[in-house]
Structure formats: structure tokens, C-alpha cells
Amino acid sequence: QVQLVESGGGLVQPGDSLRLSCRAFGFTLDYAAIGWFRQAPGKEREALACISSSDDSTFYVDSVGGGFTISRHNAKNTVYLQVDSLNPEDTAVYYCAADLSNYGRCSPYSIYDYWGQGTQVTVSS
Questions:
Q1: SS3 of 88, please?
Q2: E strand intervals along 2-91
Q3: Beta bridge partners of 93
Q4: What pairing do the DSSP bridges indicate for beta strands 78-83 and 114-115?
Q5: Amino acid 80: pLDDT
Q6: Contact call for residues 37 and 45 (beta carbons, < 8 A)
Q7: Which site from 9, 14, 33, 105 is most exposed, i.e. has the minimal number of CB atoms within 10 Å?
């Protein structure tokens, strides 16, 4: 019933940009906080950003640096992650996830119960 589908990944060169998409099925993003994560080979999953449904406020994880912009297109029930100035260290599987437990608000304690399958981003020269 509830499903998230990521798309937009691919093979790019250093300095390129990508816009990743996360489309929701079976529920409306109006009541969800959507987070973006990534996991590189041999490393732990890393949080990147979150967008709330109540006021479209955004949150970015400072430790991962700049280059990320999260946004929402309500009519398409889709959340995007713009990734700029990619470098090889950004190579990872990128995931989106939904938190339906906190009135659509992002917080450090968000519970992401629904996850997509991920989209592969590979950065190489």
C-alpha cells in the first residue's frame, strides 16, 4: 500500500549535478516528513536532509556539507533532492524515507518507517 520510489541517479563526472526524485504511492506527502539518506559501499547510512509537509521547512545535516537542496512538488506527490558539485566521495545509493508519526514535521527523532529501494549515484572521472 505504502511505497516510495526513487529515481534520477546515474553515472556522472566530478562537478556535475543531479536531481533525484522520490515519488510516494499509497499516501499523500501532505502528512509526511520526507528524509533523504545515502549509503556508500562499506559505510553506514548517512542522513542528508528532511522536508516537512506542514510548512515546507527544510533541514540539512551540517556534517555532510553543502551541495544539497530538498524540495517538494505536491501535485506530483514527489520530493526532490538536488545534488550539486558532485565528487567521487558522493558515490552511494541514495534513499528517501517517510515519517508519518509526527504531523509531517522533521526532527532529529523522526521515525522513518517507509523506505524506497534507492537510486545509485556514481561519480567518476
A1: helix
A2: 3-7, 10-12, 18-25, 33-39, 46-51, 58-60, 68-73, 78-83
A3: 39, 120
A4: unpaired
A5: 97
A6: yes
A7: 14
Measured between alpha carbons, how far is 31 from 35 in angstroms, rounded to an integer? Answer: 13
| β-bridge pairing 10-12 and 119-123 | parallel
Report how far apart, in Å, the C-alpha atoms of 125 and of each of 86, 112, 122 are: 11, 34, 10
Q: CB count, 10 Å around CB of 10?
A: 13
Q: Average pLDDT for consecutive 10-residue bins of the chain (125 residues)? A: 95 97 93 95 95 90 87 93 95 97 89 96 96
**C-alpha span between 3 and 28 (Å, rounded):** 11
In angstroms, the CA 10 to CA 4 distance is 18
Sign of the Cα torsion 50, 31, 72, 121 reads positive
Q: What's 83's DSSP letter?
A: E
* Residue whose cell numbers read 526524485: 21
Alpha-carbon span 124 to 11, nearest angstrom: 7
CA separation for the pair 47, 55 (Å, rounded): 21
**What is the three-class DSSP state of 29?**
helix
